[in-house]
Amino acid sequence: MLLLLHDKLAVAGLIIILVFIFVSIAAPLLVGSYPTQFERTTALQPPSSAHPFGTDWQGFDVLKLVVYGGRVSLLIGFTSSLVAMLLGTTVGLVAGYYGRVTDQLLSRATDFFLVIPWLPFVLILVAILGSTLPTIIFAIAIVSWPTTARIIRSQVLTVKERQFIERARAVGSGNGFILRKHILPNVMPLVWAEAVLTISSAVFTEAFLSFFGLGWRGPGAVESWGQIANEAYTNLALLRGLWLYFAPPGIFITLVVLGFAMLGYGLEEVLNPALRRRR
Amino acid sequence: MTVFLIATLNFFIVQVLPGDPTRVLLPRGSSNVTQGGSDLRAQLTRQWGLDQPITTRYVLYFANLLQGNLGTTITYQKGGMPVAGVIAPRLSTTLVLVGLATAATMWLGLVLGRISGWRRGRPVDVSITMATLIGYSMPSFWVSLMLIYSLAFVVPVFPAFGVQSRNAATFDPLTQVLDQLYHYFLPVVTFVITNVAWFSLTLRNSLTDTLPEDYMLTAMAKGLTERQQLRKHAMPNARLPVLTASALYFGWVVSGAIVIEEVFNIPGLGQLTWDATRVRDFPLLSGVFLVATLGVVVANAIADLLYMYLDPRVREA
Q: Most C-beta atoms within 10 A of its C-beta, which of A193, A236, A251, B97?
């Protein structure tokens, strides 16, 4: 893990992520509570001292919306990644350990989900299931797990040939026990690296989903960065010259995606033996 | 096999998941409240074959699919138009856009990847890697709109949308082609910015893997120039993983096309996806999804053939 600190890219990524997590958690302290219907002012105002980024189509302060938007993007990123990791790790472990027909079936399924175009697939799923928080998380997880499954599977293939596995089998350990106690701990570091990379792609996917108008809706919903960008787009913010309404959400999406990607690649290079040679 | 799986998945997504097409077809409120509405609903259910058991519908779906029948859209042009008929004319537009964009992305990616792989660890490499990674992290809808804002609105150099000028019909053929290329410039630039990392980073990493090999030392020892070492020994080995990585890239092409066509108002499949999503036209949406997935599968098959051609070991065998 200390090796990671030598990787400037990974450290920069970590700093970006920590800043965004801090801002999201401290949002009420920084900009006050989430705007309600009573706080409406004139819609689509240009930037002023009261509203540094101007106001949105409903008359809410754009800065406030953008600060709160990070909460949704990060929440969906983290939870989708968690679900995708559970799915991907399980499939990878089972496929790699049991081999034969099980492996064939699971690997074909993995390849299949790896190749299908993710955006139309997510759009269809959410359009049919509805834009609630659980369905969005589920849909993003469905397109995010295959890479992990593939990487974990190939790692399991090498781990299961090692001598301590044979020893465990010789003293009478069952398959489930070996998988849990011997193989999982050995692939776990890679799962962490993949989890970070998956958060990056999940935040990205959520942004597209929201931009297509399929973001989180319903009581208690907070607008994500993708939704703010979508509203700025549909309200012709750029044609009105209100670029501070449209630009910030996109910049923040880029920074968060980039931050997680840099940390993830750094972790992967440190933790994946196949990549270490490159350093 | 993959095609069969995709079609099956496609069928089940639309059929099994909750949601009732009659709700979209009928005006809001008329579906279950009024007496007339419920009659209409039963009639529609019969007309669309929704009262058949699921196995019958599944067999019917495949029989239709084999004849190139993708079903009927429920909203597009007042409904009743075959999905295949809506998709076909838009396919060529998308193929032109995606073809131009992929060629540009691949070319730039290979050039950048070669530079940064050869000079790895140097400032050139660091800046290329960072720049492509930043481009890769930017959502394409944002990049395209910012490009339109800066290069078509603030400084009006390029057209903001469309595939040709309004008076294009009066131009001679050559000017028409140039005019179209001019309109495709910003969409292609968006595509290059957001996707170039696929090729540059893969080539960089595979070059990095190639350089410590013994045959590279031999090449240097026998006095080849850097250029010769790179062209004759490093590149033929390093470009193979790039082809393998393109399998994932094709899935992203579809996503890129959807966003870029909508933002730039290019009448292709991507824009159709957006429209179909907005009005919840599931037959149309699943038809587009099927065509897009088929496209990805075909592109991958072509990449496999290219791999065989480019890999001397496979070619000789």
A: B97
What band does B268 get if pLDDT is binned at 50, 70 and 90? confident
In three-state secondary structure terms, A234 is helix
Closest C-alpha among B184, B194, B196 to residue B106: B196
**A204 has a chain B CB within 8 A of its CB:** yes
The two three-digit tokens of residue A81, written as one number: 């990644």
Is the CB of A245 inside 8 Å of chain B's CB atoms? no
- Strand segments, DSSP code E, in chain B are none
d(CA A27, CA A33): 8
| Residue B140: closest C-alpha in chain A | A208
Partners of A247 on chain B (C-beta within 8 Å) are 146
Which residue of chain B comes nearest to A12, CA vs CA?
B130
Q: What are phi and psi of A55, to 5 degrees?
A: -120, 160
List C-alpha distances in Å: A197 to A193, A202, A257, A261, B186. 6, 9, 9, 5, 29
Chain B residues closer than 8 Å to A254 by CB? 134, 137-139, 142
CB contact under 8 A, B247 and A115: yes
User: How far is Cα A73 from Cα A56, in angstroms, rounded to an integer?
Assistant: 19
Cβ(A93)–Cβ(A156) below 8 Å: yes
> Distance between CA atoms of A6 and A23, rounded to whole angstroms?
26
**Chain B residues inside the 8 Å CB shell of A117:** 250-255, 289, 292-293, 296
Asked whether this complex has an ipTM greater than 0.90, the answer is no
Query: Among B5, B74, B143, B145, which would you mutate to test the A interface (most chain A Cβ atoms within 10 Å of its Cβ)?
Result: B145
**B188-230: per-residue pLDDT in tens?**
888 888 888 888 888 888 888 777 777 777 877 887 777 777 7
**Which of B45, B61, B83 lies closest to B10, judged by CA?**
B61
Cα(B163)–Cα(B180) distance, rounded to whole angstroms?
Answer: 6
- DSSP string of A95-124? HHHH-HHHHHHHHHHHHHHHHS-HHHHHHH
Chain A residue numbers with beta carbons less than 8 Å from the beta carbon of B19 are 128
State the pLDDT at residue B147.
85
Which residues, in sequence order, are CB contacts of B303 under 8 Å at separation 6+?
B243, B246, B247, B250
What are residue B9's phi and psi, to 5 degrees?
A: -55, -45
B147: tokens are: 């490009």
Burial of B279: CB neighbours in 10 Å, binned 0-12, 13-18, 19+: middle
Task: Output phi, psi for A216, to 5 deg.
Answer: -60, 125
Is residue B163 within 8 A of residue B267, CB to CB? The reply is yes
**Cβ A278–B134 below 8 Å, yes or no?**
no
The CA–CA distances, whole Å, from A198 to A145, A201, B204, B279 equal 8, 5, 22, 30
Could you give the residue ranges of the DSSP H alpha helices within A99-224? 100-115, 118-129, 133-144, 146-159, 163-170, 175-178, 184-211
